[in-house]
Each structure stands twice: as C-alpha cells, then as structure tokens.
Amino acid sequence: MERTILKPRQGPSIREFLRYYVLVLLRERRMSARNIRRTIKRRSRENRGIRPSGALLVDSGELRLVLRQLRTRNFIEPVEDKWRLTAQGRDELARCENQKEAQPDGKERAARKALKLMGEPAPAETVLDVGAGEGFLSFKVAGVGYHVLGIDSGRFDYSKDSVRSAMEKARSRGGKVEFRETSVADLARTDESFDYVVTSQAMHCMRDQKQCLEAIHCLLKPGGMFLCIDFLVGPAGFLRHGWHSLLAISREEWGEMLGECGFVEPSAHKTGDYLVVTARKPLSAQSPC
Ligand SMILES: C[S@@+](CC[C@H](N)C(=O)[O-])C[C@H]1O[C@@H](n2cnc3c(N)ncnc32)[C@H](O)[C@@H]1O
Predict the structure, then answer these.
(1) What is the position in ligand 1's atom list of the atom closest to the CA of 229?
(2) What average pLDDT does the structure give for the chain?
C-alpha cells in the first residue's frame, strides 16, 4: 500500500487562510488547537484524489501563531483547554464572507494580466500551454499572434472530452493553434522547445508538481518565460474554489520551487482569487536538457 507523507505547510498565505478558517471552525463549536489541525486535515481529504499528499496538514507552530493573533484582536478567547469565537470574531467572519460577493471570479482578469506580461509576440515565437483542457488560455494567446501548442494528458474523465473539443475548435477556427493529447513529462522527452510555457488552472492538479516544473524547464528555450495562472492560496481562493484551492502552490512556495528547478527572475501577481506567476529559464541554461 502506498504511504503518503504529508508535509506540514506554513508561510504567510497559509497563515492568512488560517486566520479565516479558524473562525469558521469555532463558529461551529469550541475546539482545541489539536482538534483544529485534525479537522482541517480531515475536511481537505478530498484533495487526496488529485494527489496522495493533497490533504492540508498545518504546521503546529503556524497555528499557535495564528491563534495568538486572533486572540490579540479579540476574535477568539480561551475556555478551559479550548477556543471559542467572540462577538467581534463573528463580525470579522461575516466581513470576510462578504468579500466573496463583492469580488467577481478573477480568471479572465488573470488571463489579461498574463497576456500583458507576455507582451507583443516576435515573429514565429512559440508557446506551449500545459494542461490546456478546452484551450481557455491557448486560444487567447493565439489570438494575439503567438503560435500555440496546447497539450493535455487527459488525466481526468472530463479532460479527454476537453482535448477533443479543443481540437475541433482549433480545426474550425484555423490559425495558429493546435492540440495534442500527451503529458508534459512525455513531451519533455522529445527535442521540442518553446519560447514560452504557459499553464492555466492546471498546476494544482498535477500529481507531481516538482516533476512538472522540471519538465517545463526542459521544454523552454534558454531565456524563455514560464507563466502560470492558478488559484490563490488564501481566503479569497478558498471562498470561491474550496479545498481545491489549497492544492495550488502558495506565493512563498513558488519562490522556493522555482529556484530549486533552475528558474530565475520569479514574480507573482495577485488578481482576486488567482495568482499569476512568471519566471525565466536562464540564458546560460542548456536546451534541450
Ligand atoms: C482544471 S483543467 C484546466 C484546463 C484549462 N487550462 C483551463 O484553464 O480551463 C487541468 C487540466 O490539466 C490536465 N493535466 C493534469 N496533469 C497533466 C500533465 N501531467 N500533463 C498535461 N496535462 C495535465 C488535466 O487533464 C486537465 O485537463
């Protein structure tokens, strides 16, 4: 049987999520810190369907810090060995939840930001869209003049249909976009390379995110740009996309992972419930790898 090692997660984005979600839990009932950690792990277990290590295990030091912060702001108070929500805590929770109504879904905005970051295409510049699905980002990028290859491994039941529908759309529209059913790891074993590798709402559902980033690094030409749109890890992402959003890589984790995979010049831009991340493959790197 496969043993899953859950790594406790920490950092400002996870803390921001906890400052919201601890209030949600304490609205239901009084809880100890230990119970809060266990409940979060249990409620996020649906994420194990995407990745065996997908459930959220919160670092205990991080939770202690958040509980201290919430107590200082009078949002929670201790009762024996448990915590309970105060009236101010209830008001704060209502304020957080109202934000969801106030903010539209940020995916279109994130795509506009992505196109701006990519800029005008030079002649014959090529783009690979990883986890293209029905081609949400592929068609937008082709629309501004890039030559695009969208790939999708067809990992989920729905995604085999998505790729077929993207292929049909590409045939009927003609132009600079084509689709292939393959995984990023398999494409990285060929000698193809691209000026840009983009991906929209797909990194969170990779079985192995690090392996995917290494493959993307391989597929980029030296000096090429990686661009990723995915859920924001934090209350805004959670309020709209639920536990799924916590499968995404947080701003801080991106910084670390991109460095480990050989990328330089990382940048991250928040657009509502999404995060747009970019980085480059160094000019001095080898291609193909
Ligand atoms: C949620 S969909 C996103 C589709 C589209 N990019 C969008 O923004 O609407 C994620 C897609 O990633 C694909 N995928 C998952 N792992 C992959 C891999 N290793 N290589 C290529 N595609 C993958 C899945 O099959 C799925 O269709």
Answers:
(1) 8
(2) 94
